[in-house]
From TrEMBL:
This is Uncharacterized protein. It comes from Methanospirillum purgamenti.
Length: 51
């Protein structure tokens, strides 16, 4: 697994997700950022699991 080190010291890794093709097409047409959406969803789920 390759790691990208950002200038502020964060370590980033690439992940893969499989989604229905029509969801991908609609999201792209709507200008939805997949990476940011995925990160936001993970943060929300982790917050919920801490409660």
């Amino acid at each position: 697994m390759s790691v990208i080190l950002t200038s502020d010291g964060r370590r980033l890794v690439q992940v893969a997700a499989h989604v229905d093709e029509d969801l991908k097409i609609k999201a792209k047409a709507a200008g939805i950022n997949f990476t940011q959406t995925f990160v936001d969803a993970l943060k929300t789920k982790l917050k919920e699991s801490d409660e």
